[in-house]
Design a protein that fits this description.
The chain is of the alpha+beta class. It has eight helices and twelve strands. A hairpin with a 6-residue loop joins β5 (about 260-270) and β6 (about 275-280). It is elongated. About 25% of the residues are buried.
Amino acid sequence: MICPKCNHTQENEEECEYCGVIFKKYSLRQARLQTELAEKQNTLADENRVDNSSNRVSVRNVLVALLCFIAVISVISAGIGMYENLQQQKQHQHIMAKQGVNPKDFVTKNNVSISSTLARYNPPKNYIEHARNATVLLQSYLGSGSGFFIDDKCHIVTNRHVVKISNEEIDKLRKKANALKYYISQEKRQLSEMKNKMNDDRYQLEYDPQRVEKRDYLSLGENDLEKNEKLLKKMEDELYKINQYPASSDLTAILVNGVEYHVFDVKISDTHDIALLTILGLDSPFLEPNLESEAVGGKVLAIGNPVGLKQVVTSGIISGSYTYKGEKYIQTDAPINPGNSGGPLIDLKGRVIGINTMILSDTEGIGFAIPIATVFKAFPSLQ
């Protein structure tokens, strides 16, 4: 049901949950106003008919016909809009139901324009702040990263490694867990042997230096064992989640104003470190793409969420280009830190030219971004 007063969409067909208007009373009042308006028009026409009755009657008929035509068009448009909104809402609810998400938690929030909400509470003063509004913080069991809206249909571009751990990393984590498990078993055996020796030396005086040294060593060993067991449990829990959810299904997108949205659709590129996400929202702010290659020395800005900070902006220049495993990257000296992955690299017109992806370890001022043109090649549906 679409409210005729504020256009809010909801399931309640009696009263608007947003502005509080009662639909039946509002319809009756509108009909009464239309009747009063028509009566005033008729009275005015009667009073002026003596002067120029034929012209007045003609104008009145045209006005009435025009009003009727506009009313009919408005009703038809409202009906079509209501049908499309209901169909889209049913589709989104069906998708969320499959993922165990309660659609009722999102109905009210997602029928409000994201762009207008952010413009009201975080009005952008320049192209940088507009890009900030279009950048989001992504959080899941894998950690946090960045992303940005690429269109007004709430599609978010980010890196694949932000939402899915690679097979190589899974193997490394599994090997570390197995190695730690073996180390813990050896620790337990050594501590058990030490306890047995101390029990055999029970007649040794408590304050004997050798016994005190053994007791301290045993205490340190037990503390170390406890830490390693906690670390192993953390690794095993992470491996379990990875097996259960290969691509993060608990992914949350957080806007600049702190509002959280559940990501209900994740598409991952098989050939590039790119992912395309979708949230259940309306009219998102987005960044226009710049598909042309920027010259070396051109100034750029990187926006992201490093080390828990939100929508941090850093500046630099394009240092060159770099090819790794057949994939081209934009090289920049704009500071890119952990958490920046998936965020936009923009030019001085606020257009996105790349996706901040990685830095070289043990270096400063050497970062890389995937050209934005690669996104449209990986996901042709965006074009």
